[in-house]
Write a structure and sequence with these properties.
rod-shaped; 371 residues; 55% helix; 13 helices; alpha+beta
């Protein structure tokens, strides 16, 4: 049982960025490469069987079944022709094969005869110096897993979601790998959900930054079109995040609660931990969506208030200017008989009255908060 106690220590380091780690599993296929298989290995008693040459899937299957181990095959964006041989070798269901090749699937768990088909959406946070309306916050990928009695197949789509370092860590814990394919499935599920947690924390920082700027007192009355654009962009990214997280909750609950022949009982209980973490992330993502809605409404309300203030100022100055405009309009008429036209003090008196009235209107409007 010491292996089970160390289970979290094996899969938790997956939160660390994997871009600089070495290994062969993450080698992305070049256009000249004829096979989508990026790694194929046989494990017996939790240890990788070393061979002089790389194993083909067919050779790996024969070796695994002869020695009583299991085979783990990793593929990256295989075509239908490339995957058909592996599918027939392991008797994979055509519907699951079609989903694995075409990708763009919802997270799910399906049982086909003697295998489980699981789809995970991987999420990667895109670093940016400054968040703007065109910033890409998250990138998504997919990992499809076929779990059988003596095989485990991963099909990865997208540039993110590397499983290379995870495979190496599992190989460093033979006692864990001895539990078979279900231990690998749990490790991948935990790896994916830990990625969600890291991305949720980063997105939270972006939302806090936008919220602080929107409600910053020093920005009162400033143009807010850029804020609305950034908030809307964040909402789009959070929606993409939600599509990855929410559908996965039910499959994780099934793996943790419903007994399954292909899932080791000692491993199954640890799917509950994954389901709990996933539920926490889902609550965070739903909270992000509601918070962004509130921030967007507050931003629009502030923009409306700023426009109203501008209109009140314009109206106030128009009212003040209306007084001299009216006086000039009256005395600009060409009448011969106007009482003040030939009065010696007519001009200064009229100008004084005009200034007094304008100052009175200005004082009244300013006292009422219009200026």
């Amino acid at each position: 049982m010491s292996m089970i106690r160390d289970l979290r220590a094996v899969v938790r380091p997956s939160r660390v960025s994997l871009r600089k780690e070495g290994g062969t599993y993450d080698a992305t296929r070049s256009p000249a490469t004829s096979s989508a298989v990026v790694d194929c290995a046989v494990y017996r008693d939790g240890r990788r069987i070393e061979t002089e040459t790389s194993l083909t899937p067919h050779e790996a299957v024969r070796l695994a079944r002869r020695d009583g181990g299991f085979v783990w095959i990793g593929l990256h964006e295989p075509t239908e022709a490339e995957f058909s041989g592996i599918a027939s070798e392991f008797g994979l269901h055509p519907l699951a094969v079609e989903d694995a090749v075409q990708a763009h699937q919802r997270p799910k768990l399906e049982r086909y005869d003697d295998s489980l088909f699981t789809v995970f959406k991987t999420i990667h946070y895109v670093e940016h110096d400054q968040l703007d309306a065109n910033s890409e916050v998250v990138e998504t990928g997919e990992v499809m897993c076929f779990t059988g009695r003596d095989f485990f197949i991963t099909v990865r789509h997208g540039g993110q979601g590397s499983l290379r370092a995870l495979r190496h860590r599992l190989q460093d814990d033979p006692e864990l790998l001895a539990k078979g394919p279900s231990a690998v499935l749990h490790a991948i599920a935990d790896h994916v959900v830990d990625g969600y947690i890291a991305v949720a924390d980063a997105v939270q920082d972006d939302i806090d930054e936008v919220e602080t700027e929107v409600f910053s007192p020093g920005r009162k009355g400033s143009p807010r079109g850029s804020d609305a654009g950034r908030i809307y962009q964040l909402k789009r990214e959070v929606l993409e995040f939600k599509r990855a997280v929410s559908p996965l909750l039910r499959p994780m609950q099934l793996l943790s609660e419903r007994p399954m022949r292909l899932i080791d009982p000692d491993i199954q209980k640890y799917f509950r931990d994954v389901a709990d973490h996933l539920a926490r992330v889902q609550e965070q993502v739903l909270g992000f969506d509601e918070l962004l809605n509130s921030i967007l409404q507050a931003n629009l309300a502030q923009a409306s208030v700023a426009q109203n203030e501008d209109m009140r100022k314009i109206t106030s100055w128009a009212a003040i200017i209306a007084v001299p405009t009216m006086v000039c309009g009256v005395y600009g008429m060409n009448f011969d008989h106007m009482p003040e036209l030939h009065w010696r003090y007519g001009y200064p008196v009229i100008m004084g009255i005009t200034v007094v009235i304008c100052l009175g209107i200005h004082r009244t409007l300013k006292r009422n908060g219009w200026l």
